[in-house]
């Protein structure tokens, strides 16, 4: 099924990301590319410009955020990023607030989700991170995760991404697309 769309309805994905220094945005763009390779129609948007999930049409929601203090960013951690050189406009809102604005039952049946985060290499194995928190919130809102939260590594706070991470992101996007398609249109077991 790779690279083409079958007779079933074309999958629609919404990729929402938060990025302080550009690394998470680069990963989001690469994930979107992987989804498109697998025939998924993708809307890619910065969280600051994202309409509420309840008002958006999609079959698959992909959320990406940088890890701040072992979780999703907060106003205080975004302000700290600005003090370290991020543009002030990136501090206005984050994935935490966007997810919090979801209605109590915003995850309709068959609404699927996948989550990724970025984190620095020196803390690559975190028990809690932005992806873990976002996955927890989405599950509470009724979304069905098609993949475990996936980390992408940056060399330092401001980047750059570790070599190979953009390729990893494209590959992960393709895997997520295939998993979502299988969940929405399961292939029947062969008759013996």
Strand content: 15-25%
Identify the CATH class: Alpha Beta
If helices are DSSP runs of H or I spanning 4 or more residues, what is the number of helices? 5
Principal-axes shape call: globular
Question: Which helices and strands appear, and what pairs or packs with what?
Answer:
Blueprint: E1 12-17, H1 23-37, E2 41-46, E3 60-66, H2 75-83, H3 95-100, E4 112-120, H4 130-140, E5 144-145, E6 150-154, H5 165-184
Parallel strand pairs: 1-2, 1-3, 3-4, 4-5, 4-6
Helix pairs in contact: 1-5
Structure notes:
Helix 1 packs across helix 5 (165-184). The protein has one domain (12-184): 3-Layer(aba) Sandwich (Rossmann fold), CATH 3.40.50. The protein is built from five helices and six strands, in the order βαββααβαββα. It is α/β, with parallel strands linked by helices and 192 residues long. Strands 1, 2, 3, 4, 5 and 6 form a six-stranded parallel β-sheet that branches. It starts with 11 loop residues before the first strand and ends in an 8-residue tail after the last helix. It is globular and about 60 Å long. Residues 1-7 have low confidence and may be disordered.
Short description:
The protein is built from 5 helices and 6 strands, in the order βαββααβαββα.
Descriptive key words:
alpha/beta; Rossmann fold; 5 helices
């Amino acid at each position: 099924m790779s690279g083409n769309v079958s007779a079933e309805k074309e999958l629609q994905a919404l990729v929402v990301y938060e990025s302080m220094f550009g690394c998470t945005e680069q990963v989001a763009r690469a994930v979107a590319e992987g989804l498109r390779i697998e025939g998924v129609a993708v809307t890619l948007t910065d969280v600051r410009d994202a309409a509420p999930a309840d008002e958006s049409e999609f079959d698959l929601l992909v959320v990406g955020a940088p890890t701040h203090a072992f979780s999703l960013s907060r106003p205080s951690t975004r302000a700290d990023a600005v003090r370290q050189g991020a543009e002030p406009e990136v501090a206005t809102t984050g994935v935490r607030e966007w997810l919090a604005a979801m209605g109590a039952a915003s995850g309709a049946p068959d609404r699927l989700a996948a989550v990724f985060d970025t984190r620095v290499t020196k803390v690559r194995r975190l028990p809690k991170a932005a992806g873990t928190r976002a996955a927890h919130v989405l599950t509470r809102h009724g979304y069905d995760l098609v993949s475990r939260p996936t980390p992408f590594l940056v060399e330092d706070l401001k980047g750059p991404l570790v070599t190979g991470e953009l390729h990893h992101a494209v590959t992960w996007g393709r895997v997520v697309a295939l998993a979502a398609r299988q969940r929405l249109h399961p292939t029947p077991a062969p008759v013996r």
